[in-house]
């Protein structure tokens, strides 16, 4: 017998920044329909899904519809807390609306804690319009030593707006060396408790010689990995928000504003990144929906 007190929500799991299932960065996407879901329930669902982020899409006005409207509210929760910006779960949300709800809009607007974000169709890609996060030079920290050990570091920067530390390894560092990093996330948490940083980006300048190419042999301008144990994420597979910091940093280093990048986690993902003159960053990628169902609460 059906329980009348049980509420059900549509939920999807989307692999972002990939066109293949079981790659890229998975995110859950919940459609709140006409239900007012408490923050406690949103956090519990995110913990239950146990993905790096769970996104919640909500209608803004009576009469709005996920299949036809173009503006929605959007929030993101990790298994432990709400975050102010999440690129891959925004991409996953747009993919859910475009591909599963058959929303015909050419551009979607999301009201978020980081202001209005935009997602638009670009062929097989979905391009996100995100705020740029600039970074400033940072002195060496114990957290850095924990993350990269004795690998030579060329630059160390911090983005105070994004709360991310940027560690650039010495030019010539190979992709395989970056992929072999195994930082002790428990020690990272113990070393930094001031809430100045919530994640560490480790990045390498791309070249053919150091193996910075995608699965098709195309060279990447830069590659990276991202560790965020302060948000309950030992390693995030592919991180759109990290590239709002990397775009600003690499634009100065490479003298260009358009990049092809790869995040070299075990799942991995490819991104097209463009730094604009208006202080925004376009982060584009593909996405594939791998699961559709209802969650009972």
TrEMBL record:
Gene3D superfamilies: Diaminopimelate Epimerase, Chain A, domain 1 (3.10.310.10)
Species whose genome carries this gene: Branchiostoma floridae (Florida lancelet)
SUPFAM superfamilies documented for this protein: Diaminopimelate epimerase-like
GO MF term set: isomerase activity
Top-rank taxon, per record: Eukaryota
Annotated family: Belongs to the PhzF family.
Keyword entries, A-Z: Isomerase
Designated name of the protein: Phenazine biosynthesis-like domain-containing protein
NCBIfam families in UniProt: PhzF_family
Active site per UniProt: 53
Pfam families xref list: PhzC-PhzF
